Amino acid sequence: MSGARGRWLAGGALAGLAGYAAYHATSPTAQRFGKTFVGTPGGGSLLALTFDDGPHPTWTPRLLDVLDRHEVQATFFVIGANARRHPDVVREIASRGHAVGNHTYTHLRMPLHGARTIRDELRRTADAIESAGVEEASADGLRLMRPPLGQRRPGTLRVVRAEGYLPVLWSLTLGDWKPGVTADAIVETAEERLRGGDVILLHDGSKIGTDADRRASVAATDHLVATWKDRGMRFVTIPEMAGAAGAGGDSV
What tens digit of pLDDT does each residue of 136-159 get? Predict the structure, then answer.
């Protein structure tokens, strides 16, 4: 084998390994770097709405009103810094029967940081939630954590589990984070891709504070809950879905 061909093959192998690592570090349903809960996509009649990056003083209460009107529960993965700013909204989420999960304190990219920083982010967020008077764990003791942007590596998930959390990602994103997205576009994505058993990613806040406009997320949530309930689907929290799937603790 010539030197040039050998270098070409070695370069191709390295590129392949890099692509493999990137896929398993960022794809929400990839499991090679450690198991995470993503629902049971394609099976069953349960759906789990999840909202990231709140709480937000405007959009979270409006979402809570929508969910109340349809008599469904959801799961909110809160950024600790936002929870510290708006403890009243955290209390309102919990008082209306929704689950509250940990989304780190500053929305950091977890794979770029070591165990000490990740533990600090998780614990500061837990403290912010508990300082609002809310129990982080659900009734069955399940604590929920979602890595920002879904990014993780094996060490990331080891720390998350060691801190007592079930890592939760998603099986369907509706793209409500995209600038200028409309409620109609979000609903169209749901019509094309949503299946029973999905964990659905939406947003009620922003990692950059209170500047986000989530009115499209609110309107789309109203529409899709009404539509999919009429089709026989039942919206539940992540603890309820995980319990129904037999997933929790060390089993996922």
Answer: 888 778 999 999 999 999 999 999
